[in-house]
Amino acid sequence: MFTASGIIEARSSGRGRVGRKISLEKRAEIGRQKRARTREKILEAAFLLLGRKDGRSTRIEEICKEAKVARGTFYNYFSSVEELLSALTFDISHDFNLAVRAVIRTVPAGALRSSFALRYYMHRTREDPAWGWAMVNLSAGGPIFGEETARYGIEAVIEGMVTEQFHAGSAQLAYDLMHGATLAGMITLLRSEQSDDYPEQMVALIMRGLGVSESLVERCIRTELPEPESFMRQFGKSPAEGVGDMAGLTLLGEGLLTRFGEDSAG
């Protein structure tokens, strides 16, 4: 038989269980937020140290000291320095890459897209030296400008070759020329004062080295670049797939895409 006191006791017990569940969920959320803040502190410290001229020699101990965390805490978030550097490269380049791609997907595939991206990277370096030094220093131990940008670089090479605008001896040569020369240009901009159109001069040399026609080279360097973040806010992100994604199937038969992708990730 149910009594009034029994019903009240059952209800109270039920409320207690719900309260404990909410409390556990709240504690778990607080824990996740704390972990996220600590991870962000480590990444911010790494960026601060790597965003300097001599940042390439940054050690774990320096990062831990700057972030005010113990070395053991560092390894709770990153299994190695390499994992941290990879995460940092993505952290400081991903949003910028999205904005740049929102712009370049509005122009024809091939030389124009590639030249826009290279110009954006060099101009960003001039405007934000800390970002530029971090990208330069992070490139020393892995793919130039990181794995995500390397994938976009592969796509750019494929587009240039499939559209027959690039006439390099191989995809690897084209990739190395574009990324290597851009990296060298960024270092020059960080170390010395250069003319306002230095990025355009460098891109013109790269495009000519790839065999791009002179008329197209002029379009590559004379077209005004919109501010990428503002452009993306106004028009949205680029489509998930482009000419390069589809054109890759053509090159796959020759083994270019698979071999080149493996090389760039090493």
TrEMBL record:
SUPFAM superfamilies: Homeodomain-like. Residues 36-96 form the HTH tetR-type domain. Keywords: DNA-binding, Transcription, Transcription regulation. The keyword Ligase does not apply. Coiled coil: none annotated. The keyword Transcription applies. Residues 59-78 bind DNA. PANTHER family: HTH-TYPE TRANSCRIPTIONAL REGULATOR BETI, HTH-TYPE TRANSCRIPTIONAL REGULATOR RUTR. This is TetR/AcrR family transcriptional regulator. It comes from Aurantiacibacter flavus.
